[in-house]
Amino acid sequence: MADPVFALIDCNSFYASCERVFRPDLARTPIVVLSNNDGCVIARSADAKPFVKMGAPYHQVHEVLRQHGILAFSSNYSLYGDISERVMTVIESLVPGLEVYSIDEAFADMNGIQDRDQLGRQIRATVLKTTGIPTCVGIAQTKTLAKLANHAAKRWQKHYGGVMDICDPERRDKVLKAVKVNEVWGVGRRMNEHLTNMGIKTAWDLAQADAWTLRQKFSIVVEKTARELRGVSCLALEEAAAAKQEICSSRSFGHRLKDIEPIREAVATYASRACEKLRAQGSLCKKVRVAIRTGMFNPTEAKFAKGIVCELPYPTDDTRLIIRAALQGLEAVFREGHAYAKAEVMLLDLRQQGEFTDDLFAETQPVAAEKVMSVLDSINNRWGRGTMRPARVPVTPEWGMKQELKSPNYTTRWDQLWTARCK
């Protein structure tokens, strides 16, 4: 049986690239994207990276951005999610198998492909032509090496044209020796410190380290990473995404809230969104956790944080029942006199429908509830999210996030479609 071959297709500066798709006038303008509530920088185009650090608070770098002509955008996850789906659909049409790893990355099955470099370039060109998103492609015999090849493809993009195939052992070893160990997939800051203290400074050093020693000192995950760097495939392609074990919906408020009523609206909104995700993966939940907190970093502000787990009468995906439980939890943890900054709803104890055995006489979700939720999802899928919603969920919340620099939802809102005028 032939050794497996993987490709890692990664979108370049994805959030910033999405902002440029419908704004070609920004092709040469450096861009940063801000986190929820326009708090800090979470994405940068390549030409913005020399001037602003990732994670920098927006209010601290505002003047720097202005000096260098860098444009800032509020995060627009509706736009990014929709473009991501289009990118993944295009890639899937070109390869035998695909694992969507994140919103901007996917592993592809390259087994049996004779001209892998040509296919890599075809993927790049097709994705760019059909979606406007630039990508780089790394190809190797393991997923860890494919990530490393992608890193090299971006680093030496002008030389290799954005596609790097390191299946050849000589080229693979050159890349391993040229890349620092902290660039290896799964090696974080603390792990990098430990490895550096052991004299492991490059990806090559980690590949040559004794696998058993790494397993004893760290974990089997690090051992597998070292083996994958040597070309031994330990991680298979996972074409079907595993169902999440927890689903969380959480946002900071646009401003501090002292009264419980707007927080009730926020909790109902977050619970409703979490239930949509729950039903999308065909799960039921038995517990819901609701939590609220004040701002935690202002030294002059009183701090308070509290959460509670509420038990549901039976495993359910009924938005109405889950919102009711979450609001009861909110009543239990809310304390007057605080300025609240954030609420969170988390669905716990998830189980797949038909894959659990309960007490024969235990209460179960009524069939009528399933039908109501099915109709709710059908309407919202056809006419857009929020077309039908629980009465507790406002259309335009007064407590919503700051998104003063948000671009239009070009692809998901009829009223925000791009307008072209012909003369």
UniProtKB/TrEMBL annotation:
Q: Which InterPro entries match?
A: DNA/RNA_pol_sf, DNA_pol_Y-fam_lit_finger_sf, DNA_pol_Y-fam_little_finger, DNA_polymerase-Y, DUF4113, Rev_trsase/Diguanyl_cyclase, UmuC
Query: Sorted alphabetically, which PROSITE patterns does this protein's record hold?
Result: UMUC
Task: Please give the Gene3D superfamilies that the UniProt record associates with this protein.
Answer: 3.30.70.270, 3.40.1170.60, 5' to 3' exonuclease, C-terminal subdomain, DNA polymerase, Y-family, little finger domain
Record key words, sorted: DNA damage, DNA repair, DNA-binding, Nucleotidyltransferase, SOS mutagenesis, SOS response, Transferase
One GO BP annotation of this record = error-prone translesion synthesis
* Top-level taxon: Bacteria
Which GO molecular-function terms appear in the entry? damaged DNA binding; DNA-directed DNA polymerase activity
Residue ranges of domain UmuC in the record: 6-188
GO annotation, cellular component aspect: cytosol
Keyword DNA repair carried by entry:
yes
Enzyme Commission code(s) on record:
2.7.7.7
UniProt record similarity statement: Belongs to the DNA polymerase type-Y family.
Q: What protein am I looking at? A: DNA polymerase V subunit UmuC
Q: Which species expresses this protein natively? A: Halopseudomonas pelagia
